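Figure S4 source data
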Amino acid sequence: MVTEALDPVDRNILVTLTSVATATATTYFTTYRVDGHTDGFMPPRAPTQVGHYEDAFLKVDGLWLLRSRSSFLAFAGPSERLEPADKP
């Protein structure tokens, strides 16, 4: 049984079999990044990147291989920089 907590993760990737030996996938991502923070948990910040990948796969000798990947950035911004907690 899938719980509610897992549902958002499951929706980030869509795989489509296009034949017995080929497939495509679209994967959505959001990147959160803060440089310099060294003092435990940090409250959420705005994302630095939002976008998706479009992948093509080929099945060779029973193994699925990545044939190609294209990246698309809908949004990209600067990483926030914080001073380490031990500096004034």
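Figure S5 source data
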Amino acid sequence: MNNTKSPKNVSLKNQLELWLFCALIGAVAGALVWILLTNLCIQFGLKGGHFFPVIFAGVCMGYGMAMLTCGPDGGHVVFGAAIVTASLLGGIMKKPLAVTMLLFLCFPVKMFIWIFIAAAVGSKLITLKPEQEPSANYSKQ
């Protein structure tokens, strides 16, 4: 038995790695497009909310980024998806504890502290400028 790799097997392995890379880039790009389209639809007055589209986009983006940085054999894929999702949702909701409780539906409870930290950082990073007012004032309606 000869244990050398044939050119056919090497070529197949390279093709699979290329397709995996393209799929991961597509997941990250799709997540960015999903976030933009969600905001666009809400600005045009269509019905719906931010929470579940942002959870979906955060999971796609976190999964893609974790696979690109750690590789397909890395065990940090769920962690990456949880952190990216928590930071995105924290930036939208501005309530880290509520984000943490909501993400208990999607991720393991043992990641509680990391999800909370990411949600807190996300809520502090996205702030309005002092002279800028919110676009909608719901208290006068």
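The longest helix spans residues 7-43. The chain has a mean pLDDT of 81.
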